[in-house]
Amino acid sequence: MAEKALFHKTIITTGYGPKTYYFPAQRQDDVINALQTSSDKVVVEKSKWLPVQIEIGSSYVYFSVGNDLFFEKGDFGFDYLVNQFKPLYQRALIELHGNENITS
Q: Residue 2: which of 59, 55, 50 has the closest Cα?
């Protein structure tokens, strides 16, 4: 079972200047295609496999990388992480909600 996911160090330059982010995605192009706009320039600097933890919050399940990166439902890359860790994610949902109807 997967313990790591692919993360992309990404520089997004807006009218306020460049800012660095780390996004989980299957491919660099996925990050660029999802985030590039006519006013924001997106450049993926490098990609690296990082260990991911599945966390159970008070009412939701989310992913963390170390103490700095957190991804929850609605965040870019969350669906990729759910796919990458499907069995573990499903177990965490069952632990959070019991055996009631789990949809994610």
A: 50
Q: Are 24 and 5 in contact (CB under 8 A)?
A: yes
Phi, psi of 7 (to 5 degrees): -120, 150
Token duo for residue 77:
């890359």
Phi first, then psi, for residue 34 (nearest 5°) are -80, -30
Q: Is 21 in contact with 12 (CB distance < 8 Å)?
A: yes
Q: How far apart are the first and last CA of the chain?
A: 19
Closest CA to 82 of 60, 98, 59: 60
Question: Tell me, what's the pLDDT at 97?
Answer: 85
**Partners of 56 in the beta sheet?**
61
- Both tokens of 29, joined, read 């192009």
pLDDT one-digit tens code per residue, 26-66? 999 999 999 999 999 999 999 999 999 999 998 999 999 99
Report H helices in the chain. 28-35, 78-84, 86-97
